[in-house]
Each structure stands twice: as structure tokens, then as C-alpha cells.
Amino acid sequence: MPRIDPFLIKLLIVVTVASFLPAHGIAAEALGWLTTFAIALLFFLHGARLSREAIVSGMTHWRLHSVIFAITFIVFPVLGLISAPLTSRFLTSELQVGLFFLCCLPATVQSAIAFTSMARGNVPAAVCSASASSMLGVFITPVLVGLLLLDTASASVDLHYDTIWKIMLQLLLPFMAGHLSRPWIGAWIVRRNVILKQLDQGTILLVVYTAFSAAVNDGLWARTSVESLVAVLVISALLLATVMLLSLGVGRLMGLEIEDRITLLFCGSKKSLATGIPMANILFASHVVGSVVLPLMVFHQLQLVASAVIAGIYARRPRRVSR
Description:
It is a single chain. The protein has helices at residues 6-20, 25-49, 52-58, 62-82, 84-87, 93-104, 110-118, 123-148, 163-180, 182-191, 193-217, 220-223, 226-253, 258-268, 273-283, 286-315. It is mainly α. It has one domain (6-313): Up-down Bundle (Na+/H+ antiporter like fold), CATH 1.20.1530. Helix 11 (193-217) runs parallel beside helix 15 and helix 15 runs antiparallel to helix 16 (286-315). The model is unreliable at 153-161 (pLDDT under 50).
């Protein structure tokens, strides 16, 4: 059995604290400004970590990347859309919006690469695909969310349609600034990878606390039943299983090498918590962000557990004998 992800425990603790001790008034306003700064810093560091050499080495696998992007930005949203008549029976309107939002997000970078490496897949291609997905998501995700919610968003879910500019300022601009500064600070960042990983997680925890504080103040738990939480868990598990099985099937039909099929599996089935939570903080009104990101948090842990098991199975396969 895979061990529980320590970061999940931290997330649960933060959600619990926010549920009983939410930030109010001036404290909430100060946390909002701190969150904005922390998100910009987070994406600056992501940009500085991005290796151009790794991207160039993985760009040659265009067939693989095309399928990964199609699963991430087409298959996931289509699954969310066609399942809406069924899932809407079990979810509140805000959780339904959260499910749509989850389906529109880019792939995660760190865990997709980590599990691909653990399973002995095509790591350079994973680096290229996951990094490109993260960048494309800055533009594609808001458009997809707007299209999916055009007729389904309720008045309580205030979707900000001017968010492209906000996202460029808060996410893309710091990301590009970090990447352009990589020649000067890249090596320094790599040497402090452990510290910066803690900063990454700390930023997400800060955003989660701020978001859930606003949601709790607005009556999140009064509106969300135990049945809805169970439904989020079951629906997320079914969504993840469907996409993973589809990724495996498509990889075999295309005749991809096993290393590329592994990359397709772990990059195509992932959704980014690190990108999703800051983006939700910009896309949606503060009082609904906590509800909207709840499906993402559940899906995130499910994908980690499932990927850990599958990567372990792949890692134990016999190594090829080169001739």
C-alpha cells in the first residue's frame, strides 16, 4: 500500500483550521495581498526552473505531445460536459463548476515527471509535455472554463471574464521573467530545490487557507452535504480511471514504445493543483473558490495514489537488453 502523501495531510490540516478559525476582516484582506504576492513568486520560480535543453530534447516527439494535449484539453472537458446531466444530480452547483474547472486545467509538472522517471518512461518528453501544458493552460483554461460554464454557471458563481489580463499579469509575466532570468539564478535555484519545494507547498497551503476562509465565512459547509463529498470522491475516481484506461489504450493503438506510453499515461491523466488553485483564485469570486477547488484537491490525492501504484508496477518490469 502506498503511504499517504504528507502534503495531503497538510492540506487537510489547513482546511480544518480554516473551517474552525477562518480569517476575518483586516486579516483576510492582508492574506489576500500576501496570496497575490506568493502566487507571483511561485510562478517566477517555476519559470526559472524550466530548462530549455530539456524542452528541446523532448520536442521531437510531436505525436506523443499531440495526444497528451488532446487528452488534457479536449478529452477531459468533453468527459466533464457529457457527464454533467448525471453528476449534477449529486453535486451542488459550485461543486459542479469545480468539476468543470478540474477538467479544464493543464497537467501537473513535478508529479508527472517524477512518476514518469520512477516508472522508467521517457523523462525528457515528460518534461517538455508537462512544461508546455502548464504554459498553454494559462491561456486555454480560462477559455475552456468560460465555454463550459456559459450556460451552466449560476449567479452565485461569479466568473470573471476579464481574467486573461489578470492571469497574464499574475501568472504568465512572473513565469516569463523567471525563465528569462534563468541564466543568472537557475543554478542557485537548483541548489536550493528542497527549500523551494517547501515554498511551493507553502504558497498552495496559504492560498487554500485564504480560499477556504472566505468560503467558510460564506457558509461552505452549510451548503455542502456529506453525500456531496462522497459524490465528489466517486466521480473523481471514475474520471481518473476513465482517462488512464483511455491513455493506455490510445498508446497501444498508436504503437508507441513502452517508455512513451508511460509518459502518455502520467502526463495525460494529471491535473495541476499548483496551477489550479492560484488560477481559481483569479477566475472566481472569493466566496466560492473553496467549493470550486474541492474536487481538484480530491482528484489530486487520487492521482497521486493511483500513479504511485502504477509507477511501482512499471518500475519492476525487466530492463531491455541493448544489442
